[in-house]
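for the record, two folds in this file. i put them one after another cuz i was lazy. first one right below, seq on top, structure tokens after. the second one comes after a little note so u can tell where it starts
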Amino acid sequence: MGLTDPQIRIIFQLMLAALLGGVVGFEREYKRKEAGLRTFSLVTLGAAFFTIISFEIFDLLLIKPGITFDPGRIIQAIAIGIGFIGGGLIIYRQFRVEGLTTAAGLWVTAAIGIAVGVQLYIPAIFVTFLTLGILAGLRLVEQKFFKDEEL
């Protein structure tokens, strides 16, 4: 038994997805943002699981004559669902938009989950750390060069 056993592979994928989402969520939690460790882990886990289920169903139906199934539809539904969640995070308060970066982070995290779901592990890990670099590293650049002026 190893990663060739489909059940073990799926468990590995789900654990990896939750871990990668948690890495991004940790940064958001540390910065005390609207969504944190649990939210990002759940989004990535859910996106991965929906993707895995979609492709498993595709494999089952592939051998049935006359039945067509497009797993890309599930991925599209994930993107729409995350857009809905992200839209709920974005608010306009006192001439400022808040929650936009967190919403964008959730969107990217869902894509990371999808990548894990289709076994694109290296790109998923790369995008996780690229996302961390953008969230943490570019924050420092913004603070240094683009200081907010109080209204």
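(here's the note) second protein begins now
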Amino acid sequence: MSLVDHPRFLRTVLIIDAATCVATGALMSLGATALAGLTRLPETLLFGAGLSLFPIAAFIALVASRPSAAGVWVVVLGNVGWVIGSLLLLAAGPAPNALGIAFVIVQAIAVAMLAELEVIGLKRLPAAA
């Protein structure tokens, strides 16, 4: 049995997604001032985006407790929205420094990877539920 065919694959990915939301939310909200100084991203943007991740994490954890196609699609679409927003920030937002660009790109890639894993898990939902 491959890892993606494991019955708990989707739940595990969703739990990882929720946990990374909490960790990133804590970093961005509690460390907004320091992170802004390091990245040249606006402190208010970091703080607000960080705070927004806590209710998102709670929702993802709720979906993980009883994965449904509708719930998982909401998570996937939210992740896609986060990636698009991150790329738009780099295209049209304030000019971060190289570390700021790397910070935005790395987290966008991680979120995109989670979304892809969630879609893979969604395709196997009857086996995962």
